[in-house]
Predict the 3D structure of the following.
Amino acid sequence: MAGPLRFRTPHIEELHTAHSRHAPGFAWVAVPGGTAPADPSKNWGTTNRKRAGNKIGGQTEQQREAITARQQREVDRRIRELNSDNSKDVQIPIPKKEAGGPSTAGGAPARIGKTTNTKKILASGKTFAHYLDDEEAEIARTGRRDGDLDVAAPAQQRPSKTPIARRKIREGSSISNSPAPSISMAPPPAPRALHTSLSTEAMDIDIEEADDEDDPLPPLPTAAEMEALLDAPPLTYNQARSAPPPPGAPPPRKFCETCGYWGRVKCSRCGVMVCSVECKDTHDQFKCLKIYA
Amino acid sequence: MARKPALANSHNETIAHQTLILDNGACTLKTGFASGDEPNPSNCHIIPNCIARSQRDKRTYIGAELYDCADYGELAFRRPVEKGYVVNWEGEKAVWEKTFMGKTARVKCDAHETNLILTEAPHAPAALQRNADEMVFEEFEFASYFRSAAPNLNAYAPSPFPGATALPCGMALETILLVDAGHTATTITPLYHGRPIQQACRRLDIGGKTLSNQLKELISRTFDVHREDWIVSEIKEDVCYVSSSFNSDMERAWKGGLKDPREVDSTVVVDYVLPDYEEIKRGYTRPHETNVSIRNRALGMSNGRKEHVVTIGNERFAVPELLFTPTDIGMQQEGLCGTILQSLESVPKSLWHVFLANIVVVGGTSKLPGFVDRLEAELRSRVDETALVRVACAEDPIKNTWLGGARLAGNPDVLRELVVTRAEYLEHGDLWTRRKFAGKTTR
């Protein structure tokens, strides 16, 4: 079982230094025995990486992390691209004479504003990301958004950006106490129980509660409760984003890179999914990036 | 809403006689004047909200000029609206001026004599709201102005459900759960008497644009259309549909393996003839031919005409599927139904049934065939059986927001309550104006 001629140092252990960086492409790899290649001279403990990569546990935790981080970056980049508004790499100036309007009588460029405010706005080269960052920074600094001046200064123990009003509401009796999706950057979404709770609640109403003398429906919110709900300040852009699927959700579906059918086989070199031999051939010929080797 | 007519009168000002509704969407702006009691959707003009540059005739098209373009090939777009918000006011000003002023204006408008109802995407950063207010009052100098999140106005449009009683102008539907499937994103807004339950508003970052771009990527696997934004979005409108049974459609569109080739289902797989802007002005579909290669068609060897044809199979439904399963492209967000349920979680339980029974769908993306049926079916399978799930698409999903705004403006008392006049803006400043639009202050 022992692969011949490996580094037979008695015991190698990676000591955790203060600055441990997971450089992608380099990590200590535990070489599983038995799969050592025929030519021992080439076995530097790395030659069967490809196969090791496919095996469960063939990679170290760090390697897997590095790879998934890289794939995640790739996915994020792609989503950004899919959601981009403007055509790529094109600067389209506004033609001067076309700009029309009375303000351009003297052939002045379109960005001239009438007041200092509008001058500033028209000349601004900020993108949406800038505005978003500005607002997040403002909230982090002052704890509130620009518009809600009437909201009392937030309590100190509010690390999350959940607006105060929402917390108040949650204490309300008639309101679902399922945790609202955590919108902050915290990755694990709070386990949400809507679907089950919704159905069980309803079951309760229909079957069990029929015997109980409790009123069958949760009480309608009072006018005051409703008013509080409607008066709450709007969520921020990031808070309003749909939360990730719950942990119990089915795993993401994979599709063939070449034809779009179900991805049934993974390319051993780059990790892309393909559906059939035919598509694999196309993939090998034209598309295989070999980056995740 | 017209609770305080006395207050309005005490403030001894009247508003202008005509009201312009401007639904400033990311892809198109929908605009026109409100016309009295029953606004007519034909008064609403749909104008591309972009500046486009053609590589072929080297012309720049602003707004409605794009309709006169003879060749939509290789058009490059600059959109002033980013993620649904007006970010680039330089470009937006050019589009507005082209639309409302000048000789070729589609909707001629004297801002000094006009009230403006302007929509914005929900959850706008305050800095962008301030920019909009300042531009409207200081640059365009509208007489008075009301800025509203676009979904909210839909409460004033007629109910799309059959058998609903028609409400008078300016009266909001009691409860609707509004799904706005737009160009940038899809937003969920529960509206209670026309006011949003803010804590329950959600956004799914998949919109028509995402679908077009994804389709562009997929088609480019066989035929490079990376630079053809306009044509690809036409292809999307012509062939894409929301599948009611994704798995079986997938099987029907599969060519099979090497050993077991299958006949693809010709109801799913189609050929799309791309426009060449000489003879074919707009692409069209036709039944799939298996035996002619792309190259032969391009050389005119199959039937004597040179044409570019792309075969579109599972892309037809796999692309719109992103709305319901964003994880297909690795996006860490729940699909449309999951997002709706997330939104409902923040709503009092007693209102769940009401909202589930009054889901209204608007926005251009909802015109995809099968969208409403799929949404309704999937929602029904995820909530318990006793809940009534009703989903309806507005009669004209693109103009519905405009229509709501126009009906709101049809009632001058309600409108007077909402708008800020230019004098008030100059007197009270921009912060007051923002708070007023957020409903936080009265005169």
User: Anything to note?
Assistant: The two ends of chain B are 15 Å apart (CA to CA). Chain B touches chain A through 107 residues (CB under 8 Å).
